[in-house]
Design a protein that fits this description.
97 residues, mainly beta, 4-stranded mixed β-sheet, 3-stranded antiparallel β-sheet, 1 helix
Length: 97
Amino acid sequence: MLGTKFKDPAAKKPTFIDWSDYLANSHPLLVSGDTIATSTWSVPEGLTNEGDDHDTTKTWITLSGGALGVTYHITNTVILASGMVDARSFQLIIQAQ
């Protein structure tokens, strides 16, 4: 898990995941120079995905909504150009900012 992030319930807040260290062969099964081909996000009910995208080494999503005091679990799954699949998750706590 990537840790915990925070968001105000009224905010539309982008969140980024930098996969570049992982793609730089930190895993023995990765192909040298592998890149992100697709990215999908699992967003729980109560949050809204306002848009997401990726480039060859990073993924991002803009989230809105959420109930004050609630902790949400968000997961990003990527498929690499080599066909390998991996995922990263984080917790998002909704609090007044």
